[in-house]
């Protein structure tokens, strides 16, 4: 049944071959998927100040998303796609024409390849990210722009410098090529990668959030990345937690709560001593 569904989906996509082979397609695809992923969270941000039910799921409920910040991010994202992603798409279209094999990939192959691409991207991003925090000039000139907000929201996912945007786009484009993925698998990886990036920056934690569905704390998610923007020198991996565990940079919400409790206890003891 799953193979039949993938074949029907792939046959339908192949009917749009002229669009798929257009140099405009990667830009339109990337921007439309990104905005579709952001839209539900934008709606939640608008409702957050009015509904306590929404605020209870916000990781930093005291933070507010302003129209000015939203508009700034939208303008920057649109400019980056038009001025930088589109020219690169034309170059990529020229050097690597789109191939449309008649047979869709098997479901198991899709799952395996998408997971492999995500793990490879997670590794690339971790070391890229760690380097840009440890080397001062790399942080100052290239990565600092992404740390304008200590409380992230969905549109800040691509609120980055041009260098950072191009670096991560390069990793995203390269990995399916390295793993020789089917074009349909490549598209599904792009969708998964964009969604997980937006979810990590969303600022919300729900009972169905990805990190709650993956056992043993192997996946970080929104809590994980929110702490990176808040604490700065922790949680460098975008999705999974194994690299942060190995390098001793993993920080969890539980640790943060314990730290805050300890601070409150110290302040309480200090106040008691002063009264004495």
Automatic annotation (TrEMBL):
One GO cellular component term, please give it: membrane
Instruction: Give yes or no: UniProt keyword Transcription.
Output: no
Pfam families xrefs:
FA_hydroxylase
Q: Give the matching InterPro entries.
A: Fatty_acid_hydroxylase, Sterol_Desaturase_Related
Major location, coarse class? membrane
What's an example of a GO molecular-function annotation for this chain?
iron ion binding
Origin: domain of life = Eukaryota
In this protein, which residues make up the domain named Fatty acid hydroxylase? Answer: 114-249
A GO BP entry is: lipid biosynthetic process
Protein name per the record: Cholesterol 25-hydroxylase
The organism named in the record is Seriola dumerili
């Amino acid at each position: 049944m799953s193979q039949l569904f993938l074949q029907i989906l792939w046959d339908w996509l192949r009917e749009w071959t002229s669009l798929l082979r257009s140099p405009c397609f990667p830009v339109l695809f990337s921007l439309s998927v990104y905005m579709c992923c952001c839209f539900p969270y934008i709606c939640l941000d608008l409702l957050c100040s009015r509904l306590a039910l929404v605020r209870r799921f916000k990781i930093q409920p005291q933070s507010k998303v302003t129209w000015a910040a939203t508009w700034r991010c939208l303008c920057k994202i649109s400019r980056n796609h038009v001025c930088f992603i589109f020219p690169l798409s034309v170059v990529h279209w020229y050097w690597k024409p789109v191939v449309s094999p008649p047979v869709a990939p098997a479901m198991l192959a899709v799952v395996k390849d998408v997971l492999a691409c995500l793990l490879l991207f997670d590794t690339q991003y971790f070391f890229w990210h760690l380097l840009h925090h440890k080397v001062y000039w790399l942080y100052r000139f290239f990565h600092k722009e992404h740390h304008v907000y200590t409380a992230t929201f969905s549109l800040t996912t691509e609120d980055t410098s041009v260098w950072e945007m191009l670096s991560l786009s390069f990793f995203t484009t390269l990995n399916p090529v390295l793993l020789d993925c089917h074009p349909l698998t490549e598209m599904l990886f792009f969708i998964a990668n964009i969604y997980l990036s937006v979810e990590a920056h969303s600022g919300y934690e729900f009972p169905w959030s990805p990190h709650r569905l993956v056992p043993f704390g192997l996946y970080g998610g929104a809590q994980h990345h929110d702490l990176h923007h808040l604490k700065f020198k922790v949680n460098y991996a975008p999705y999974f937690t194994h690299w942060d565990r190995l390098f001793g940079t993993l920080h969890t919400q539980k640790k943060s709560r314990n730290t805050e409790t300890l601070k409150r206890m110290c302040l309480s003891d200090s106040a008691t001593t002063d009264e004495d």
